[in-house]
Design brief:
It is a single chain. This protein is of the alpha/beta class and 460 residues long. The chain is built from 16 helices and 21 strands. The chain has 3 domains: 3-106, Rossmann fold, CATH 3.40.50.720; 119-315, 3-Layer(aba) Sandwich (UDP-N-acetylmuramoyl-L-alanine:D-glutamate ligase); 324-459, Protein-Tyrosine Phosphatase, Chain A, CATH 3.90.190.20.
Length: 460
């Protein structure tokens, strides 16, 4: 950490201002400080349901990048801490204003690092599965005597929030985000690592440097803590290390006989001590069974009883936009998912085919980032070709400028399935309505979520 971070005390401030307050991770921090009695405000580019909720909770939010829009109390640099996300454009004038005027300015990850210095941080890292796994872990802890606070990367259905605040617990569950090397600011007591498939190569430069970033993160785990790692990942830690995997004879924790019984997704789990037969999971999917294994391993390390873990797994209802059922009937199913990497697409499609082996699958996919589409072009084409019908949307740019030759048109040419087409967002609902799909998936991490409610109306 910088010298500023080492000497800074959050209690020295009465005002917390967020640049990019509408992001899922930033909004959790905003709620945290608001709940603790700080005066909180912030800027975001776009008004959303999430920013509306923040306003309802008493947080001031504006949507114009102008310094005169900042509420008056937040111009006092001695009382105000500025927190920003690296996902915002570098040209944002408000951030330049705060830096030019010598405010105390920290990245979101640095603030989370300060929080984990004063609690037992339970990190969840990995290219895929962070949000579901951290939300599941938080729910299991909250249903036990241990309890926890948690900063989540999605709206957990059981909490209806991305924040869990339990000041009586010494544990804090945090998504350890690899983007911009943010997880290297944390101080984890224990951590789960779900995957290290390369991503964010625009930040890391190479697959080797990406993997090194994860090793650097694992090196931060407290020696008295625990590393729970998916079998096959070549990461080492001075802390106790346990492995997990589906259908493995060699992992410390494994799950077998994934099946559906009486409408429930059920697995058998082998731990180092015994077999847990017929463990019911509240959410379906092969990848979610694997996420549950990781949580079981860490919860056992924390000495949570088996019965408490079983109850929590059965009652866990998932996270918005992670294998989220939007509609279910005898004739039609609609699932929305955040998948934005080929490995995540593979897990989603594998799970859907396991649950609905006879159904014709139609997928609406919005690629996220030009750089990610370029880096994993063939992987996206391969996975999307496994669908029966593909409706491809233009690439969602987020923070990026276009890359020549990297387009949805080019991707569409490499997808091989029965039916495929490129459709702009305004025409998606009418296109789906005309198709009357048996099983519909909406997939992506951009603004495709804005289509969910209009599409849901087609099924009612």
């Amino acid at each position: 950490m910088s010298e500023l971070n080492q000497t800074l005390n959050l209690k020295d401030f009465s005002n917390i201002y967020f640049v990019g307050i509408g992001g899922i991770g930033m909004s959790a921090l905003a709620r945290y400080f608001n709940a603790l009695g700080f005066r909180v405000a912030g800027y975001d580019k776009t008004q959303t349901k999430l920013t509306d909720t923040l306003v309802e909770e008493g947080i001031q939010v504006h949507f114009e990048d102008l310094a005169d829009q900042i509420p008056a109390p937040f111009h006092d640099k001695t009382e105000t801490l500025i927190i920003y996300t690296p996902a915002i454009p570098k040209s944002l004038q408000e951030l330049h204003y705060f830096k030019r005027e010598n405010f105390s300015v920290l990245k979101r990850s640095e603030v989370l690092g300060l929080i984990t210095m004063s609690s037992k941080g339970l990190g969840v890292a990995g290219t895929h599965g962070k949000t579901t796994t951290s939300s599941m872990l938080a729910y299991l802890l909250e249903q036990s005597e241990i309890g926890c606070s948690a900063f989540l990367g999605g709206i957990a259905t059981n909490f209806n929030s991305n924040l869990v605040l339990n000041t009586a617990s010494s544990y804090t569950v945090i998504e350890a985000d690899e983007f911009d090397r943010s997880f290297l600011k944390l101080h984890p007591y224990c951590s789960i690592v779900t995957s290290t498939d390369p991503d964010h190569l625009d930040i890391y430069g190479s697959r080797e440097d990406f993997y090194t970033g994860f090793q650097d993160y694992v090196n931060l785990i407290h020696p008295a803590g625990c590393l729970v790692i998916r079998e096959g990942l070549q990461l080492t830690s001075s802390a106790r290390t346990v492995t997990y995997a589906i259908n493995s004879e060699t992992a410390d924790y494994s799950a077998y006989q994934l099946r559906v019984e009486a409408g429930e997704f059920v697995v058998d789990i082998r731990t180092p001590k015994k077999i847990w037969n017929a463990v019911a999971l509240g959410i379906p999917g092969i990848h979610n069974a694997e996420n549950a294994l990781a949580c079981v391993a860490l919860c056992e390390f924390l000495e949570i009883p088996e019965e408490d873990i079983r109850i929590g797994l059965k009652q866990f209802r998932g996270v918005k936009r992670r294998f989220e059922y939007i509609h279910q009937s005898a004739n039609q199913v609609y699932i929305d998912d955040y998948a934005h990497h080929p490995t995540e697409l593979a897990a989603l499609i594998d799970s859907v085919k396991l649950l609905y082996p006879e159904s014709r699958i139609t997928g609406v996919f919005q690629p996220h980032l030009f750089s990610r589409t370029k880096d994993f072009f063939d992987g996206f084409a391969t996975q999307l070709s496994r669908l029966d019908e593909v409706i491809l949307m233009p690439i969602y740019p987020a923070r990026e400028e276009p890359i020549p030759g990297v387009t949805s048109d080019a991707l569409l040419e490499h997808i091989h399935c029965e039916s495929k087409r490129l459709v702009a967002a305004p025409e998606i609902v009418d296109t789906v309505k005309a198709m009357q799909p048996e099983l519909l998936l909406t997939i992506g991490a951009g603004d495709i979520d804005r289509l969910v409610q209009p599409l849901k109306a087609l099924f009612s």
